[in-house]
Specification:
Layout lengths: L1 H16 L9 E6 L5 E4 L6 E4 L11 E5 L5 E5 L5 E2 L11 E2 L6 E4 L7 E4 L7 E4 L5 E4 L11 E5 L4 H19 L1 H9 L12 H4 L3 H6 L6 H12 L12 H5 E4 L2 E2 L1 H8 L9 E6 L6 E6 L6 E8 L7 E4 L3 E6 L6 E8 L22 E6 L2 E2 L3 E2 L6 H10 L7 E4 L3 E5 L1 H4 L5 E2 L5 E2 L6 H18 L13 E6 L4 E4 L2 E5 L3 H4 L2 H6 L1 H15 L12 H13 L9 H9 L16 H17 L6 H11 L25 E2 L4 H12 L4 H6 L6 E6 L5 E5 L1 H14 L64 E8 L2 E11 L4 E5 L4 E6 L3 E3 L9 E6 L5 E3 L8 H20 L1 E2 L4 E2 L2 E2 L4 H15 L8 H16 L12 E7 L5 E3 L8 E3 L10 E5 L6 E5 L4 E6 L2 E7 L8 E5 L5 E5 L2 E11 L2 E7 L8 E8 L1 H23 ...
Parallel strand pairs: 14-20, 23-24, 25-28, 28-30, 31-33, 41-43
Antiparallel strand pairs: 1-4, 1-12, 2-3, 4-5, 6-7, 8-9, 10-11, 13-21, 15-20, 15-22, 16-19, 16-21, 17-18, 17-20, 24-25, 26-27, 29-30, 32-33, 34-35, 35-38, 36-37, 36-39, 39-40, 42-55, 44-55, 45-46, 47-48, 49-50, 51-52, 52-53, 53-54, 56-57, 58-69, 59-60, 61-62, 62-63, 62-65, 63-64, 65-66, 66-67, ...
């Protein structure tokens, strides 16, 4: 209703104050219905733009409409007498010319009082005011005001006034056309190039005589000359704000931001560092700029900007007088005095040929326009000056500047100077900066100075001095870009409000965050565009001395580690919830090296090193098509070796510490492949384990004297921290305030250990801590003398693998470590670890606590023991007799205070050992089995079952309607431990992502998601994505509906209670075991020389070992193969045996290459797949109906007998006749290029030549078999194939066919030629009786 009322009022205004239609011969302003601005012509470029309405003499804003044919009008500018021209090109700015173009002016449908100006009515491509205030063509016709709608404001102007305007334009043009000659004429009368004093002979002249010496000067410039002669400058009660103080000034030189951004590796800083305090009067006026002698190596420009813009019109200036046409009414003027300090600069020595001090200040004298003023610390301005200017000088409503040591603010006047309004609900004043600009600039300068210090820019200040520009407008919210940070005008009463930025940490955060964006490049790891800038913001907040830092507590950090989430993807794209966890990594380094004083130059040194040896970052464009290379890596994906691993090594080198455990805790050493990182793009990252290992090896080889595994606990919010003295906090008292209530100090929200002050004294050692295990938790116990712990880490004692860590008193044992031998350590201030003893070694009270925890753990297990093998995740009860008895005895001992049989500690240890024995025995668990159908009910809400609804999986309550959809099965996915998840309706889960829905839609497994299965201690199952085990099948809400989503395994909604409802697993695993034994036999036959086990010649001659572990893998397979064949009738072990064989085969496959196939012998035929290594096509036989193609060799993706090939040796090395199983024929060449198979034609000998990896070529007749996509032909181009054993046949007939020709051809090659019974020589005998060496030979 409010919007409707506003629109109604707006249209009433239009009909009241605007003309309904233009009339012939009348003059109007053309007003934008969207912006309220008017169309104006530039007298210089003659382009059209929208500007705020000027005075009654701004004739360039006035347009005469003259009726033409067909109801159209010409539109003529009153000032230039030129006509608006029609443009068609998108974003082409409209302009005027002398041609009398005609326009239709029609009311906009559904927008009463609004009009479209177009070439023809309904053309829908008319005059439009874009977001940059330019007039361009654009479409119209909607019911919303879009910038293409106009109304007309009648101007009462006489013919005499129009004539006068025309004369004024002619005078303007005369000056414009002759400005160089006029400048020379006027410059000649001055004693200095800056135009501050007349030559003696001219100073002595009368006013009339002086003006006679410059007859061509415009009247405005003549009055300037008289002002200088007679010293009639406008005065001010504050002398430093006088007219002359702003019009004549010695401007400071500034470095070139475009050049220094590459040297210092940041966004380019401010390009308009020298405001003048002068604004243009109108776009038909001139600015007169006198410039003193310009030093060599510098460039000087007059820059004119609209409002708070930082780009506009730059006019290069020369020495003496420059006459510059103004581009805009109220255009803001700057002097860009740019000096060359970058040429020849050497980063290594931080020196160059020219310093800033080598360039003097440059005197510039500016006339024309009006003095608007600006505040400058350099000019000695005060708060009193600020107030005076606000009340008396700031005429430009769009832009006011304040310049400090490091900062320049360029904000809209209304909000910048907003006086006090009221106190808001949070107790803060609502105001801008009406009085105390000195304090505001102190804050902004401090914010910039601190970030620059951490960037080590102090070392460059002899050469680099660009300030940081902050500007505002009505667009967006806050952001950062080249040359500036940007803020919406509605934020100014926060970011220049002293009450807020001094008392509220969050009010300072916006500017600090955006300033950080301009500075972050050097240490911006991929995925940290919105993280590394926050790090710089946090450093500055801390250095302010009044507040704590911003960011989540350690819960997210630890959860990401436990869920194995790589650091760079923790932001979940760009605006993920983990961004404020990720930034704590940078801040922990800050707290240790800077706050605790361990290396006060750490970050400046790091920035310096990363300027010399940059992080690689994104090097290629986005690949939204996800096209992969031959190794399965998405094209354009980035190798994090040169990014995050480089960052790790630089940090270690600078700190002279081994920080690998710190970075491990932050997820820097997790392999990645095609991991998605949004981060203002669509990017993918990979990181190979080999790269990780190499990085760790280099760090280890450096033999750094100190470890950094304690840094992961660093916090500034464990307990209150005293305020720190700073420029903004000169009299610190009390403790730091919380940055915000999102992570307060109170109530142990951020943990119990790791306060940064506790890292300072490294002599303090940990003592008085013990641990106990309760269910799936490790619980820290403190004795009375406990002290010195900074946090606790949990390791697998056997592998020394870090399992988890905490800054509290409890850690969750990961699922895969249940029952493992555990080690708990406390991190100490000197970087060493204190091994925390078990509570059984503590005082009796602690031993009782330990026993109590052990009893709880045992009881949790016992409750999950059952005789019902349908309860997946539970345990078989038959394994629990010993534990149950032990539990009962220990429980009685605790209740009765009885230590006569065992101490509490002994009971605790015995129980823990018994639990571990069960947990470490996979046979005790009731596992999810193939050949079963099951249901999954969620742990978070135990009424909801996962359902295979198409196309998105729902979570539903069980009912007769949903029963079919809630049944699931698993299918082996071809890799040990990986499965497809299939619903009873036949659909597979095809895709899953964090917090995104699970999709079904395929009834085949191609491109279908695979999963691994794990179990919790308390009987729940987690189903993990096999390619990212940090994501599991879970339950969540989407628009109020419960869906199957990607979740994390530690969340209860990522855990399922699974019950088997149909069980055919016994028959399934019996058959599966038979198949796996066949597969195992294939591998054994193919690669192992059974007569040479245990020797150097274990593998057959045609096998090339690609992995040094192949011998171990093959031996393990052989041993288990024999063991399993002896126990094949034991159905209870079939599932276990299937998994064992699958794992062995996984280990072996891909670890060898077939360089020569096994030739068929008299006992068996070894069948091979011949596979194209480029596209995985199988070499096969055409099986269609075209007679001409019958028996032709073709590529195929079908696995059948047509793709099975046997090899018969010709007797020559690596040469074979190749036999097809389906059509029982050998390969032969029908023509030179076409390849067929036949039992009746001559055989074609094929030479198998090993190339590399698993690649071979198949050669014949000095050519090679290659895949055309349609056929397999012979040609000169090599095609790379691989041979994989498909099966072994004990078919005597087939073996006889192949071996007979093998025997005949071997003898033929070894002896004499072969002849038929008629004495004719036969090259390739196929079937029948032949003569060789004087003997008859039968070829079957």
């Amino acid at each position: 209703m409010k919007l409707k009322s506003l629109l109604t009022a707006f249209f009433v205004m239009l009909t009241t104050f605007a003309m309904a239609q233009v009339e012939d011969g009348k003059v109007y302003r053309i007003v934008s219905a969207k912006y309220g601005t008017v169309v104006s012509e530039s007298p210089i470029t003659h382009q059209l733009s929208c500007t705020s309405k000027g005075t009654e003499t701004e004739y360039q804003e006035m347009w005469k409409f003259t009726a033409a044919a067909d109801g159209k009008f010409t539109i003529q500018n009153v000032y230039t007498q030129r006509y608006i021209q029609y443009e068609t090109g998108r974003n082409v700015v409209w302009r005027t010319a002398t041609d009398q173009a005609q326009f239709s002016i029609a009311e906009t449908p559904n927008l009463k009082g609004c009009y479209n100006i177009d070439r023809a009515a309904g053309n829908n491509w008319g005059m439009h005011c874009d977001g940059s205030s330019n007039i361009v063509p654009w479409s119209y016709g909607t019911s919303e005001i879009s910038g293409t709608e106009w109304y007309f404001e009648l101007v009462n102007i006489s013919a005499e006034e129009i004539a006068a305007a025309t004369v004024a334009y002619q005078d303007y043009s005369k000056v414009l056309d002759n400005k160089e000659a006029i400048a020379a004429e006027v410059s000649n009368i001055f004693a200095d190039k800056a135009g501050t004093a007349l030559k003696a002979e001219y100073a002595a002249k009368s006013d009339a005589e002086l003006l006679a010496a410059i007859p061509n000067a415009p009247e405005e410039l003549k009055q300037v000359v008289l002002k200088i002669k007679n010293n009639t400058w406008a005065t001010c009660e504050r002398a430093n704000l006088s007219e002359k103080a702003f019009r004549v000034y010695d401007y400071k030189p500034y470095s070139n931001p475009e050049q220094w951004k590459d040297i210092l590796y940041h966004r380019p800083f401010n390009r308009i560092n020298n405001p003048t305090g002068i604004c243009a009067t109108s776009s038909k006026s001139f600015i007169y700029v006198f410039v003193d002698e310009i030093p060599e190596g510098t460039e000087v420009y007059l820059a004119e900007m609209k409002g708070t813009a930082y780009f506009g019109t730059d006019t290069e200036l020369v020495e003496g007088l420059n006459i510059v046409p103004a581009a805009n009414k109220d255009g803001v003027l700057y002097i860009r005095y740019v000096c060359d300090t970058h040429t020849g600069f050497d980063v290594a020595t931080k020196s160059g040929p020219k310093k800033l001090s080598d360039y003097p200040a440059l005197k510039v004298h500016i006339e024309g326009g009006y003095v608007n003023g600006f505040w400058s610390k350099e000019r000695g301005h005060t708060n009193e000056d600020w107030v005076y200017m606000g009340q008396n000088m700031f005429r430009n409503e769009e832009a006011v500047q304040a310049v400090g040591d490091e900062s320049m603010l360029n904000f809209r006047k209304k909000e910048f100077l907003q006086p006090f309004q009221y106190v808001d609900n949070w107790g803060f004043k609502v105001e801008g900066c009406p009085t105390d600009i000195e304090t505001v600039m102190k804050f902004w300068d401090f914010w910039n100075e601190r970030q620059r210090w951490y960037m080590n820019l102090d070392d460059y200040y002899d050469y680099f001095n660009n300030k940081q520009l902050a500007m505002s407008d009505d667009n967006g919210f806050m952001d950062a870009g080249n040359y500036r940070t940007h803020y919406n005008n509605n934020t100014l009463t926060t970011i220049v409000n002293i009450d807020r930025i001094s008392r509220d940490g969050g009010s300072a955060w916006g500017p600090l965050h955006e300033i950080g964006h301009t500075n972050q490049y050097a240490f911006e790891i991929v995925g940290t565009s919105e993280v590394s800038n926050n790090a710089l913001a946090n450093f500055t907040i801390f250095d302010t001395g009044t507040h704590t830092s911003r960011g989540w507590n350690m819960n997210a950090q630890i959860a990401d580690f436990e869920n194995n989430i790589p650091y760079v993807v923790r932001g979940e794209g760009l605006y993920g919830s983990e961004l404020f966890s990720m930034t704590r990594m940078y801040f922990q380094l800050f707290l240790y090296f800077h706050a605790a004083g361990k290396h006060p130059e750490f970050y400046p040194t790091l920035f310096e090193e990363l300027r010399k040896d940059k992080l690689v970052g994104w090097t290629t464009s986005s690949n939204r098509d996800l096209i992969e290379d031959e190794n399965g890596f998405i094209l354009g994906s980035m190798d994090a070796t040169h990014d995050q691993l480089k960052f790790v090594e630089k940090c270690c080198s600078i700190a002279q510490m081994d920080l690998t455990e710190f970075f491990e805790a932050w997820g820097f050493f997790i392999p990645m492949k095609n991991d998605f990182v949004g981060d203002y793009g669509h990017h993918h990252v990979y990181l190979l384990q080999d790269s990780i290992d190499a990085c760790k090896a280099r760090i280890k080889a450096a033999n750094y004297p100190k470890k950094g595994g304690h840094l992961m606990f660093l916090e500034d919010r464990i307990r209150p921290s005293k305020q720190k003295k700073s420029i903004l906090n000169e009299n610190p008292s009390g403790y730091r305030a919380d940055y915000s209530d999102e992570a307060p100090v109170a109530n142990n929200f951020c943990g119990l250990y790791g306060q940064w002050e506790d890292y300072i004294d490294e002599s303090v050692k940990a003592e008085g801590y013990f641990y106990a295990v309760s269910k799936n938790k490790v619980v820290i116990k403190e004795a009375d003398n406990a002290k010195g712990a900074l946090g606790f880490k949990l390791y697998n004692a056997d592998t020394n693998k870090l399992l988890t860590y905490t800054n509290r008193r409890e850690m969750t044992i990961p699922q895969n470590a249940m029952g493992a031998n555990l080690k708990v350590v406390a991190a100490q201030a000197d970087g060493t670890d204190y091994v925390v003893p078990h509570a059984s070694q503590g005082p009796e009270s602690m031993q009782r606590d330990a026993l109590d925890g052990s009893l709880k753990s045992a009881n949790t297990l016992i409750k999950k023991a059952t005789d019902d093998n349908r309860k997946v995740g539970y345990y078989y009860k038959k394994y629990f007799t010993e534990l149950t008895n032990l539990y009962n005895s220990a429980n009685a001992a605790l209740k009765n205070n009885d230590t006569s049989v065992h101490s509490y500690a002994e009971w605790s240890i015995m129980l823990d050992d018994a639990c571990s024995e069960i947990l470490n025995n996979p046979d005790t668990r009731i596992s999810l089995r193939e050949g079963t159908a099951f249901t999954m009910v969620n742990n978070y809400d135990r009424e909801y079952y996962a359902a295979g609804t198409y196309p998105v999986c729902d979570c539903v309550k069980k009912s007769s309607d949903t029963e079919a959809n809630i049944k699931w099965t698993i299918e082996y996915a071809g890799k040990s431990g990986e499965y497809y998840l299939k619903n009873a309706n036949g659909y597979y889960i095809t895709s899953l992502a964090k917090d995104n829905s699970a999709y079904v839609g395929k009834t085949v497994t191609e491109d279908t998601q695979t999963f691994t299965i794990k179990y919790t201690l308390d009987g729940f199952t987690t189903i993990h994505m096999s390619n990212d085990e940090s994501i599991v099948v879970g339950l969540g809400n989407v628009n109020g509906s419960r869906k199957v989503l990607g979740k994390t395994p530690t969340e209860t909604n990522g855990q399922w209670k699974i019950d088997i409802v149909e069980d055919n697993s016994v028959a399934f695993y019996k058959q599966a075991l038979e198949e796996m034994l066949v597969e195992a036999n294939i591998r054994i036959t193919e690669i192992i020389n059974l007569d040479s086990i245990g020797t150097m010649n274990m593998f057959k001659p045609g096998i090339r070992v690609l992995d040094r572990n192949l011998e171990t893998y093959a031996t393990d397979l052989l041993n288990d193969y024999y063991t399993i064949t002896k126990d094949i009738e034991n159905a209870e072990n079939h599932m276990k045996y299937v998994e064992i064989l699958r794992k062995h085969i996984d280990n072996i496959d891909g670890k060898y290459a077939v360089t020569a196939p096994i030739a068929t012998d008299s006992e068996k035929v070894v069948w091979y797949y011949v596979i194209n290594n480029e596209n995985d096509n199988l070499m096969s036989i055409y099986s269609g109906n075209k007679a001409a193609q019958k028996n032709r060799v073709v590529p195929s993706d079908e696995v059948n007998d047509y793709a099975l090939w046997g090899f018969a040796s010709t007797g020559k090395n690596n040469e074979y006749y190749v036999y097809n199983k389906a059509n029982k024929g050998f390969i032969y060449g029908k023509t030179r290029t076409n390849i067929f198979t036949s039992a009746e034609e001559d055989c074609l000998p094929i030479t198998v030549t090993y190339v590399d990896g698993n690649s071979v070529t198949l050669g014949a007749d000095n050519q090679y078999l290659y895949d055309t996509g349609t056929y397999v032909n012979l040609g000169t181009d090599k095609e790379f194939w691989r041979l994989e054993v498909a099966g072994i046949d004990y078919d005597q007939e087939v073996a006889d066919i192949i071996t007979t020709i093998e025997q005949v051809m071997t003898e033929a090659n070894a002896d004499e030629a072969i002849y038929d019974l008629n004495g004719r020589r036969v090259v390739n005998p196929v079937r029948g009786i032949f003569i060789q060496g004087g003997k008859k030979v039968l070829v079957k």
